[in-house]
Amino acid sequence: MNIPQCSFPRVVIIGGGFAGISLAKKLKNKKLQVVLLDKHNYHNFQPLMYQVATGGLEPDSIAYPIRKVVQEFEDFYFRLADVKEIDTTNQKVIADIGELKYDYLVIATGSKTNFFGNKEMERNCMAMKTIPQSLNIRSLILENFEQALLTNDIEERQSLMNFVLVGGGPTGVELAGALAEMKKAILPKDYPDLDIRKMQINLIQSGNRILNTMSENASEKAEKFLIDLGVEVWKNIRVTDYDGKVVTTNSDLSFQTATVIWTAGVKGALLRGFKQSSTEARSERLKVNQFNQVEGYDTIFAIGDIATMETEAYPHGHPMMAQPAIQQGQHLAANIIRLINQKEMQPFAYRDKGSMATIGRNKAVVDLPKFKFSGVFAWFVWMFVHLFSLIGFKNKAVVFLNWVYNYIRFDREARLIIRPYKEKEPISFVSDEI
Amino acid sequence: MNIPQCSFPRVVIIGGGFAGISLAKKLKNKKLQVVLLDKHNYHNFQPLMYQVATGGLEPDSIAYPIRKVVQEFEDFYFRLADVKEIDTTNQKVIADIGELKYDYLVIATGSKTNFFGNKEMERNCMAMKTIPQSLNIRSLILENFEQALLTNDIEERQSLMNFVLVGGGPTGVELAGALAEMKKAILPKDYPDLDIRKMQINLIQSGNRILNTMSENASEKAEKFLIDLGVEVWKNIRVTDYDGKVVTTNSDLSFQTATVIWTAGVKGALLRGFKQSSTEARSERLKVNQFNQVEGYDTIFAIGDIATMETEAYPHGHPMMAQPAIQQGQHLAANIIRLINQKEMQPFAYRDKGSMATIGRNKAVVDLPKFKFSGVFAWFVWMFVHLFSLIGFKNKAVVFLNWVYNYIRFDREARLIIRPYKEKEPISFVSDEI
């Protein structure tokens, strides 16, 4: 990888997400050689991806070049690399671009969509964990409507206008809200010769409430907001399969649809080379102690979604979202510095700053540790928090500008099929004589 | 295509570029049924594509949804369609999504990159006529530098940092300028462990001056600006081939490079079904009379790049750029309306509003009919004109915001490899022991 050897110990970080970046920032110029590896050359802001998928934002404005984050750091190296495996015996990282020795290794590979082993669903469902995936969803939504215009088969048209979102977590809820806004404000104008009222947005939740990581109150409010927007919310229903045409469930309920977006589960983006014992079977996350040390390894740490730290408050590990990742990254930086100074590491303690979700225009639910609220004010809080969490002034400004414009104009101008998702099935040539 | 029959005559427009859109706008609510067909669901602003390719702008901010343009028009239908052929005998358009009868047909398919039959160059060169192509160039530029970091083979590294632009027209010149700005302000910070001084930007022009459609003075100034920026300008040299590694020319000059961007020629994006006699062999454009009627057809018109109208001032047709396209579109609209009202059509007369090109920061050349100038003021004029030619307030605002930011910060934050262009050749595993 052409990383020069130097006298400082080498810390290798795998992953430039929330965890990896916040760690990297805190390790800046600290008598360490830091190597950051990522599959992409950008950090992306996952919480706003659903707006890219629904044409509200450009992908570029929620992504930020990693090299720009680390530009000024000394003894810091970024490499665009796809890491396959860790050789824990020889303390080596094995990637597509070569191997690299490490003194300390930090796994911050995050999580990926979990289809719980159902290959057919994995093949036929859309996932939304990466920017290209969000762009594929954007293209598919629009392609569906373009296609719906062309068919005279009522069933086919209906299934093209029928959207099924599996999973009632924040992503599914926010996506459903955004789709409902498109249905209300944009699609009827864009497709006057389609009856957009026939468009259906189904949100399917296996549990008995949506946003089940939030307060009961938030769940109820969010569900009400969605129903007001015309979203069909289905609870206590588990999707069993999707063959590309029909969604089957564990009830007698089924859906004919051309589009299933799967947000019903994630699992750790695990690397090869770890002991069975150090990974948690169900979620495929790495078990870590209170110092984020991976069970069974002294020099390997894991932070963020990939790590599961069992605590009293969180017996199954911290929630797989931005806050724990950021806090673990910052905390680990301090611990690594303690370590190389032969000081005692400090245990990680998660400060829950609360969580929130937005449902279309003017509506959101916010759970703060001491204070829970919803509605317009919550929506402003949501916008404020997300805007200021974006890296970089330009992204903040562009996103803000887009939001103001979209709000005033009830519009989303990024409804562009720049990279078509599906090969258009050429419709059998019918000439329009009548 | 599910277009209802109606009592008004049907005008079918193929292509939503400058020509097609300006025609469509003028045919709004005019007792005509208008059907607009395009391969893409967006209109894109070609003059700024080079900034997408060099990470200065998001693709979405130079593209605009066609459906939004025509939203309010009556008896107006847009279809996402790839037209293959015209059945001139039965007055039918034949597309991937079906057939459609027309009363009047307007070909506004624009132009595509012309490799003059050299298949190997077509395979190995990058073109920049579409947004996906610009994004591919963006990805490739960045991928080259990421790869240059990894190799110890000096020749390979050099060829990865060596850029060859073929064609000294506005596109080639503006792209060269933008690359030179990246070399100066961004790449040294992003790639501190590469010697960016070794990056070469070669602009090859077959003629004896660049920007040969502009004034001698503009050519000289532009060349000086480029040389000041460190661009190598090669004149009177014709590229003969590129095998993916080495560019050969009609002189003993050759270039070892991983990247050749071809802007050296365009040809009409011709459709099947036309008489030989009605197409101009060399440029593959449709010969039209002064009413933009395609030679040999009364009800078929062609406007913009695809049309070549031989006049005294322009014996080989008008320049293939935005202005003639826009003016022909507007003029044809008036003529079609005259036609259906049994009035005489008026001949088209091109009003040359001048042309301009920008070369990096603060520098541009502007030729107005009565007044030619260059430098900082020209650069402001260039920005002003391009900003206000963009469709849509939001795009204007976002582009302006980006420009201000990029200018103040000497930056381009859209340097993101969102869709990798090349499969990374996995480098033979070398461990870094030393």
TrEMBL record, chains A, B:
Chain ranges of the External alternative NADH-ubiquinone oxidoreductase-like C-terminal domain: 353-408
Membrane-traversing stretches: 373-393
Natural source organism: Flavobacterium sediminis
Entry superkingdom: Bacteria
Keywords of this entry: FAD, Flavoprotein, Membrane, NAD, Oxidoreductase, Transit peptide, Transmembrane, Transmembrane helix
Enzyme class: oxidoreductase
Statement: the UniProt record of this protein carries the keyword tRNA processing: no
EC number: 1.6.5.9
GO molecular function: NADH dehydrogenase (quinone) (non-electrogenic) activity
Residues making up the signal peptide according to the UniProt record: none
Protein name: NADH:ubiquinone reductase (non-electrogenic)
SUPFAM superfamilies noted in UniProt: FAD/NAD(P)-binding domain (SSF51905)
